[in-house]
Every structure is written in structure tokens, then in C-alpha cells.
Design the sequence.
């Protein structure tokens, strides 16, 4: 089994920044890739960003491209999300996820393990 734990969420004013962290444990082999998703109250879970360990390719959702940056350390089984120029519409619970097979980086069903989530609230 794999366990994921997110941290770094909190309350920030519009235009501010936050850095989220996610650490994985419980499995000795490396994942294929990791990603971040978010879910606001009453809405579907939305793809935010992802990284593929082989080659380091990154992917971003249209709503966050240019403002958010994903990075990580596969050896440490950790991934980070730097969020800049935050907007009130970024308010959501942010989830870290890991996948162990190839597939779509934007589909929630293609991820094998999920963290508990961390709350991000952006005030205006």
C-alpha cells in the first residue's frame, strides 16, 4: 500500500502565494508519476498539475498555467506545488495523487492512490 500526506494549505489573500507539499510512503518502488487535483464545494474534482518522473515532463490545467508550478523529487517520493498570484476561485481542497502505470494525467480514475487533502482558502 501507498500512503500520501499533504501539507502547506491555509488562508491567504488574493495575489498571495502558498507552497503545498506531498510525501509518499509504504512502497519501495517508485511511482510512474504524481499529480495535484482540487475540489471546491459542490463541484467536480479538477486536474491542477502533474509530473512524470521519467523525463520530468510536467502538465498543467488551463486555469492554473502560468501561475502554478509543480516539482518533485522521485528519490524522496515527494512532490510540491508552488502557487502564485492566487485568486478566490482557487479556493478548494487540494489532493495529492500517485500513479504506477502509464495513462492520462488528467483523469482521476488513472491514479492509484490519494492523500487526505489540504484546504486552501483565498480571500478577496
Sequence:
Amino acid at each position: 500500500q501507498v500512503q500520501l500526506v499533504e501539507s502547506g494549505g491555509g488562508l491567504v489573500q488574493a495575489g498571495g502565494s502558498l507552497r503545498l507539499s506531498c510525501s509518499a510512503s509504504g512502497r519501495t518502488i517508485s511511482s510512474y508519476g504524481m499529480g495535484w487535483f482540487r475540489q471546491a464545494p459542490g463541484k467536480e474534482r479538477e486536474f491542477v498539475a502533474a509530473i512524470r518522473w521519467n523525463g520530468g515532463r510536467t502538465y498543467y490545467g488551463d486555469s492554473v498555467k502560468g501561475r502554478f508550478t509543480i516539482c518533485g523529487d522521485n528519490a524522496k517520493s515527494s512532490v510540491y506545488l508552488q502557487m502564485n498570484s492566487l485568486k478566490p476561485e482557487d479556493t478548494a481542497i487540494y489532493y495529492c495523487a500517485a500513479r504506477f502505470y502509464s495513462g492520462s494525467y488528467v483523469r482521476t480514475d488513472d491514479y492509484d492512490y490519494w492523500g487526505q487533502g489540504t484546504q486552501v482558502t483565498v480571500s478577496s
Observations:
- The mean pLDDT is 94.
- The longest strand covers residues 18-25.
- DSSP finds no helices and eleven strands in the chain.
- Residues 27 and 109 are 20 Å apart (CA to CA).
